[in-house]
Amino acid sequence: MMPSSASSTPKIWVHDVFLSFRGEDTRNSFTDHLYHALNQRGIDTFRDDEKLKRGTFIGPELSKAIEESRFAVVILSKEYASSTWCMDELAHIVECMKKRELQVFPVFYHVKPSEVRNQTGSFSQAFAKHEEKTVLGEVGKWRKALTEIAIISGWDLDKARGESEVIQEIANKISNILTSMTPSDSDDRLIGMDSRIEKMEAFLDLKKHDDVRTIGIWGMGGIGKTTLAQLVFNNICNQFQASCFLGNVKDKSKNYDLVVSLQKVLFKKLLYSGDDIHNVHMGMNSLSRRLPSKKVLIVLDDVDHQKQIEDLVGMDWLGPGSRIIITTRNEHLLKAYGVHHIYEVEKLNDEEAFQLFCKKAFKKGHKMADDYTNLSKGVVKYASGLPLALEVLGYALSGRELGEWESELAKLKEHPDDNIINVLRISYDGLDKTEKQIFLDIACFFKGEDHDHVFNILDACDFYPESGIRVLKEKCLVKVIEGNRLWMHDLVQQMGWSVVLRDSLDPGKK
User: Fold this and answer.
1) Does 1.10.490 match the CATH number of domain 421-509?
2) Radius of gyration in angstroms for the set of CA atoms belonging to the chain, rounded to a whole number
3) Which of 78, 268, 322, 415 makes an SS bond possible with 122, Cβ 3.0 to 4.6 Å?
4) What's the whole-model pTM score?
5) CATH architecture of the domain with residue range 194-344
6) Is 303:259 a contact under the CB 8 Å cutoff?
7) In what residue span(s) does the TIR domain sit (predicted)?
8) pLDDT of 239-290, one tens digit each?
């Protein structure tokens, strides 16, 4: 008998999926194909002939594997119930389903769910034999387990469906659930995100299944574009046949060889294929032929050129119901590609910013003294709603004495943190020579000044402000606010000052 030890959920899952099957029925057919489909997606799957150590007693080892798995896929074939081993295994699976949050997916392999539920047909014959040789209490437990498993929604191969289609559906479902369970939704990442996620999901409009939608997430560096995209991805990915989050596209696309590697990731995640792609055009041709047949979710994170989007998802490659999310600092490329909606990520309000900073700066349960509260508010004001700055400074000040806080805050006003400035400077480095000059002039002299007045000064200097200021606005370096005044985030302005100090041999003459 298999031991019952399902009293508490393990802290760490060892396996993603436990496969329960009768070896003689499906080991070298359906189960084998399903096993490889799951592993192809990076899903750790336990089946007895692959994972059991030689020389160990099979009962406790299988029991432990069930308890350490997130999911169990039970392949109910005609002779499944004839195996006392399978029935013990199933009883333990049902027990863990109730006590250990094990999710169970039944597959009715050429048997009807009603046969399993009522133990008729081959199941009736199997139990007639069990009742001759086995303790009735055990038989009763097995009957109950079959009845409970049969009422769970699963896959029925008794209908006119191909095995390969069912295998892909099972693997897709588990893959999407696992993706949505990734440990990215920690409390600090969720601060201020609820309303932003709601807006994004409204733009995505998942109820419409016949169209393809592309949504842009736009904002300055460090504002939380990637975090928002990841949270939305985790929330909705299980509603698609396949999904893929491509992070840091800008850096990974600096040459065509790396673009090819990104295309290969799309093939693996969306088409479950290891197609032999030798160049970008071959990848584009293959993706454009095969993606229209699927409903997929794709996130392209940190894009800085329209061609990156076209090389990876084309202009009209995707099937009905598919969604694309693109994060970028450049509004223009989103408009040029023709996204359906652009969501500009807002900075955190004062309450959200204070909450995020305190999460990083103080240990859980720590009670702040008034002096720390006031200094924390000073840091929040300095960060001006930028999540990156709040996190960096929170980590830097965590565990420090009051005097160090005061010193650090005073220093920041003169010498901003390099970790923050280097992220913000990426946008500056992408400007041309004239655009950089306009940005530095606004940072040093014209922040808060009338837009038209500054425009005339820059125009007189032959700086082409019509296009220059437009580019700065598209890259979230400058805004025009109420009263027709030019504005930039305080930390962006500090980044501009630091450029002058670092890049000039005689900054006094700049």
Assistant:
1) no
2) 29
3) 78
4) 0.76
5) 3-Layer(aba) Sandwich (3.40)
6) no
7) 13-178
8) 888 889 999 999 888 776 778 889 888 888 887 766 678 888 888 898 899 8
